[in-house]
């Protein structure tokens, strides 16, 4: 993703939008655009939360309700300024979102959406039954927002507040998506093959980023609710119920979930269509009823079937054809390098694995395995399929908890710690099943590996204060890509690469974290002969540079050529350890591999 793919049209659209109330356009246009701006604010939150993060929420209308009622109560009952109402609303929303998020974001699958429905319903009925908030009649007579002598009383005036907020939010979300925290957020989406394993292995707390997205989305909805309340000059519970919660999600899906432009496209399309349908459908079907709901249902099914990414990607592809897009390729390689850690001297104790064990129910996948790695070593871990190599790897890197045993990395005990802490201690890894973010460029994927060497958070990113550090991270990513020979594919989408280069990108990403020990899980699996040779060259070069490697590999020849020592596993047990010639000469190893081959032969028959 690039920060602003179409800077000129975006600037032109902004000027036009903000200038509109000065032109002699009908009031009706302004009213419509006010609603579209208000909806877009909420939907922008959903773009981040649902489109990018993969966390579905039906409850955003409730957060808008908190914003509306906070200011309603403060201004009408206590007689305070709308701006205090905004601050109070934001504070209450942030606290609520943190509390609800902490409770529900650990839930997986469908529990989160269900929880958001519950919470939206609960808040609706709570508001509707509170005497102080006027029950279902709500609160009347909210004052207009004023700033100095300017009053935003008329629709044409509050338009500027609404669209100012919406455009600023769009700017903030756009910047956020293209930043250190944004890369982690984009890696989380389970619907697009993401998850928390890889970001955690890069050192990021995924729960924290889910919370950040949840809070930002809630705050955007809150601002929308605040603006709505002061536009209407009254509040009642109906716009904050579950019906609107669903409609916001509908807008996000139709517009193009996961894109900033989609939030605006979706809000506009649904609002305008709804108005038209409300006029036409009763004429067709007769009588009066909410027929538009039926049409929306059908449209939703059609969109999900034929344009699952929504309408915006179609629009933006069209724009890309006629408009000059910004060149996103600039990498400033003169940027000062990121700080690097001090690595242990060659020969120093690096990793000490002592009798680690993993049981999955009755199956002992890793049975009291021990081995050591010294700085500068390349150690291979081999064994037939199902021997427990990947599990051993996951135990050492903290992806799986140990049943028992000890792991010491650079003199620190790391068993029992999560993969995020272990990454911080200096270990980085790749995955047997490649875990790249397919819709990010190769460069961005590698920059994700710089996570622990950089600091900018979501607020800094939204304010654009992370630029210097971003330049450093991109330059570092480019250096690592050059190191593995993929610099000329830096701007391809990672998902478009073949498996071989994808595995190399994973290695570059791991290298970008400046590890003291690099763990590679079956880097040669599924590669063609030429790709294997290229990979072997890269690994030899890394070895020459003094990097320490633990290499899991099924392919014996590949391991023999590269490693100093080899640990052999079979059925979870330690079989032997030795130099490549020793292992090659071992009858036990040969029997293990032949046994495995026999099995595959049988399987074929
Ligand atoms: P390798 O990487 O050597 O091929 P693995 O470590 O992937 O082997 O698997 C070792 C054994 O543990 C296999 O029998 C596998 O089926 C089992 N296993 C691996 N992961 C799990 C899990 N999450 N739950 C249950 N069994 C598992
Ligand atoms: Mg494996």
**Rg measurement, Å:** 28 Å
- The mean pLDDT is 90
Number of domains: 3
Helicity range:
40-55%
Number of helices: 23
What topology, given as strand order, has the largest sheet? 10-11-12-7-13-14
Shape: elongated
> Got a strand count?
14
Strand content: 5-15%
Main sheet attributes: strand count, strand direction, barrel closure:
6 strands, mixed
The secondary structure category is: alpha/beta
What small ligands are held by the chains?
adenosine-5'-diphosphate, magnesium ion
> Which spans have pLDDT < 50 for at least 5 consecutive residues?
598-605
Distance between the termini: 49 Å
Give an overview in words.
The structure is a single chain. With 605 residues, the chain is α/β, with parallel strands linked by helices. The protein folds into three domains: 16-241, no CATH class; 346-426 and 515-605, P-loop containing nucleotide triphosphate hydrolases (Rossmann fold), CATH 3.40.50.300; 437-513, no CATH class. The model is unreliable at 598-605 (pLDDT under 50). The strands form four sheets. Strands 10-11-12-7-13-14 form a six-stranded mixed β-sheet, with helices on both faces. A four-stranded antiparallel β-sheet has the order 6-5-8-9, covered by helices on one side. A two-stranded antiparallel ribbon has the order 1-4. α18 (467-483) packs across α19 (499-511). The protein is 55% helix and 12% strand. It binds adenosine-5'-diphosphate (ADP) and magnesium ion. Residues 360, 363, 365, 383, 385-391 line the site of adenosine-5'-diphosphate (ADP).
């Amino acid at each position: 993703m690039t920060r602003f793919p179409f800077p000129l049209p975006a600037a032109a659209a902004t000027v036009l939008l903000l200038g509109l109330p000065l032109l002699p356009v009908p009031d009706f246009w302004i009213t419509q655009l006010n609603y579209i701006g208000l909806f877009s604010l909420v939907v922008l939150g959903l773009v981040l939360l649902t489109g990018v993060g993969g966390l579905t929420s039906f409850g955003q209308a409730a957060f808008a309700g908190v914003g509306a009622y906070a200011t309603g109560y403060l201004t009408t009952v206590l007689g305070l300024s709308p701006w205090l109402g905004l601050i109070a609303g934001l504070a209450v929303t942030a606290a609520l979102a943190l509390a609800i998020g902490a409770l529900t974001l650990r839930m997986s699958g469908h529990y989160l959406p269900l929880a958001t429905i519950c919470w939206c319903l609960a808040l609706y009925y709570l508001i509707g039954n509170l005497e102080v908030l006027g029950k279902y009649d709500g609160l009347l007579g909210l004052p207009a927002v004023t700033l100095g002598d300017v009053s935003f009383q008329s629709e044409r005036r509050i338009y500027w507040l609404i669209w100012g907020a919406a455009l600023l939010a769009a700017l903030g979300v756009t910047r956020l998506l293209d930043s250190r925290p944004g890369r982690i957020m984009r890696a989380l989406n389970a619907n697009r093959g993401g998850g928390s394993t890889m970001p955690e292995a890069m050192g990021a707390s995924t729960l924290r980023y889910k919370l950040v997205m949840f809070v930002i989305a809630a705050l955007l909805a809150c601002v929308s609710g605040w603006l709505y309340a002061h536009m209407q000059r009254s509040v009642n519970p109906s716009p904050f119920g579950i019906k609107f919660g669903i409609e916001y999600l509908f807008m996000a899906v139709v517009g193009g979930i996961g894109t900033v432009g989609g939030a605006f496209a979706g809000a506009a399309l649904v609002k305008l269509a709804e108005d038209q349908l409300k006029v036409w459908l009763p004429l067709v079907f007769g009588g009066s009823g909410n027929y538009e709901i039926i049409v929306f249902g059908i449209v939703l099914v059609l969109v999900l079937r034929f344009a699952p990414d929504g309408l915006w990607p179609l629009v933006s592809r069209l724009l890309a054809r006629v408009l000059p897009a910004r060149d996103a390729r600039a990498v400033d390689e003169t940027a000062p390098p990121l700080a690097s850690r001090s690595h242990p001297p060659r020969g120093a104790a690096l990793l000490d694995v002592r009798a680690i064990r993993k049981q999955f129910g009755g199956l002992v996948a890793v049975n009291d395995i021990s081995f050591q790695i010294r700085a500068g070593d390349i150690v291979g871990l081999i064994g037939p399929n199902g021997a427990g190599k990947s599990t051993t790897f996951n135990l050492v890197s903290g992806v799986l908890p140990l049943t028992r045993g000890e792991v010491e990395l650079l003199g620190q005990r790391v068993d029992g710690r999560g993969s995020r802490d272990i990454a911080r201690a200096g270990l980085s890894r790749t995955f047997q099943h490649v875990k790249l973010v397919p819709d990010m460029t190769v460069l961005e994927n590698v920059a994700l590996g710089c996570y622990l060497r950089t600091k900018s958070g979501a607020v800094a990113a939204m304010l654009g204060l992370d630029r210097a550090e971003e330049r450093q991270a991109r330059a570092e990513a480019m250096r690592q890509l050059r190191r593995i020979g993929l610099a000329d594919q830096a701007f391809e989408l990672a998902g478009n690469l073949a498996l071989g280069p994808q595995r190399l990108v994973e290695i570059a990403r791991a290298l970008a974290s400046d590890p003291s020990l690099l763990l590679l899980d079956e880097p040669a699996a599924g590669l063609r002969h030429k790709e294997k040779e290229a990979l072997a060259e890269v690994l030899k070069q890394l070895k020459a540079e003094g990097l320490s490697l633990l290499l899991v590999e099924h392919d014996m020849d590949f391991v023999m050529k590269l490693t100093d020592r080899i640990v052999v596993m079979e059925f979870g047990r330690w079989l032997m350890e030795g130099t490549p010639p020793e292992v090659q000469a071992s009858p036990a190893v040969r029997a293990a591999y032949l046994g495995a081959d026999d099995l595959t032969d049988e399987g074929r028959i």
